[in-house]
Amino acid sequence: MSEPSQSDTITRNAKSNLAFTLVNLPEERRRHMAQFYAFCRIVDDIVDEPVMNDAERHAALDRWVQIVTGAAEASPGIEKEVQGLVREMELDPAPMLQLIEGCRGDIRQVQPKTRQDLLAYAYQVASCVGITAATVMGASDAARDYAIALGYALQLVNILRDVAEDWHKYERVYLPVDDMALFGVTLQDIREQRYTYRMRQLMAYEAALAEKFFGDAEEAYVALSVDDRNALIPAQAMSLIYHTILEKMQADEYRVFERRYSVGNFRKLWFLLRARIGTVEIPFPSLADWPFLKGNDEKKES
Fold this sequence. Notes:
Blueprint: H1 6-14, H2 17-21, H3 27-48, H4 54-69, H5 78-88, H6 94-104, H7 115-137, H8 144-161, H9 163-170, H10 177-183, H11 187-191, H12 197-222, H13 226-231, H14 233-251, H15 265-277, H16 291-301
Helix pairs in contact: 1-3, 3-5, 3-6, 3-7, 4-5, 4-6, 6-7, 7-8, 8-12, 8-14, 10-12, 12-14, 14-15
């Protein structure tokens, strides 16, 4: 048995929702998605790497720009895997480069002032991931609108779920300044984890935006061809998982300072099955193709 690739190891160790859904893909697609996921994971982790200073973080991201564009020769391991993926699949590097720049912005994060600022960030770090992931999973260019809308939705759920963690680990706030002012929520409220009526109203306001993008994504999904929907089963499972996390927060009135909302593995498997069944037409073997039934038919005829 061959040693697992670096991308396989990174994907397996991450234990993320996306990595969980990749079991549905054919072997080659799964390998390619593991390579792409590992790239996304590494780029994101560079920004939060505690042993690096800001200059080292920027340099590490610059290196990945060179790898993605082919401007530098890749070293063995994950760099070679990612560069090979881009070349083998002839991927448009633009979304991957936008992801890098979105992550770069978190090195010295500036709180978004408006929703437009927030969505511009979400586009880079989530929708651009979705655009490339859809291609790697085998979907056509028609899936672009779906990937963009779903990226927005997933990132907004992440932001809502991680309000406390983002502040306490990194002193980052992604809730827009204007929206916080609209509901009278201050940075001090977030620093001191004040669970107030105003905070709940702000969270509900942002949750409604996430719901809007989940709806946009679903509308785009059902309009896709059967082949595209089949290719995007892992993405649709992600939609179900994250929408459930959003529903949990809503039902619990956004107690994000007290707990981190998640979905268990058994339920994730169920969502993967639901995504597979969903609106996707799955070919089912003819009864004549089942050997034990074929044998029974022969007995009846004899």
